[in-house]
Amino acid sequence: MAEFLTDIKTLRERARQEIDKGPITEAYGADVQRVIQVCNEALATEIVCVLRYKRHYYTATGIHAETVASEFLQHAAEEQQHADMLAERIVQLGGEPDFSPDTLTTRAHAEYNASLDLVEMLKEDLVAERIAIASYTEIIQWLGDGDPTTKRVFEQILAQEEEHADDLRGFLERFPKS
């Protein structure tokens, strides 16, 4: 049987100390305030993506619009799930999720896009997904072993962002190059 690095008596004593910190213990290895800030930036990114995909869903027109719009709606729902995961993690870390519309686009990594051209919608959504992929990959590397739970949240989101990018690339390949 493997031995703990810290004896059980000490672990129990530490668990009682600073009980108001919830899941943040002495073993937490990251800067919790900076992690909350990074999560809030990612939250803003996800909310902007929800709004962009929703707009594209409602405004998509053309021969391929129905199929593509259906994908936009699915992506919007998944981006909302990402936002919910991030907001929940921010609260677990003792922070407050920032849903302020006044600063949403300045905090988000991705940009909002109001294009009415279906191919441009796909391109802009793919650019946004690529930004999220690059950003979240950096965040995962930055977190390292300091906050394994937040790292897993970002890993789950990253996997789905990569699926979104692949979906969008597939749609773009169906259209003639202009």
Task: Give the arrangement of secondary structure elements.
Layout: H1 8-16, H2 32-59, H3 65-92, H4 104-107, H5 118-143, H6 148-174
Helix pairs in contact: 2-3, 2-5, 3-6, 5-6
Descriptive report:
The protein is mainly α and 178 residues long. It has one domain: Ferritin, core subunit, four-helix bundle (Ferritin). 69% of the residues lie in helices and 0% in strands. It is built from six helices and no strands. Helix 2 (32-59) runs antiparallel to helix 3 and helix 2 (32-59) runs antiparallel to helix 5.
| Corresponding CATH superfamily | Ferritin, core subunit, four-helix bundle
- What is the name of the CATH class? Mainly Alpha
Alpha-carbon Rg, integer: 20 Å
Subunit organisation of the chains = single chain
Count the helices. How many? 6
What fraction strand?
under 5%
What is the distance, rounded to the nearest whole angstrom, between the alpha carbons of the first and last residues? 64 Å
Could you say what the CATH topology is called? Ferritin
| Computed structural class | mainly alpha
Poorly predicted parts: none
- Count of spatially separate domains: 1
Helix percentage = 55-70%
What overall form do the CA principal axes indicate? Answer: elongated
GO molecular function, one term: ferroxidase activity
Keywords: Iron, Iron storage, Metal-binding, Oxidoreductase
Cofactor: heme b
Binding site for Fe cation: 46, 82, 129, 161, 164
Short characterization:
With 178 residues, the chain is mainly alpha-helical. It contains six helices and no strands. The protein has one domain: Ferritin, CATH 1.20.1260.
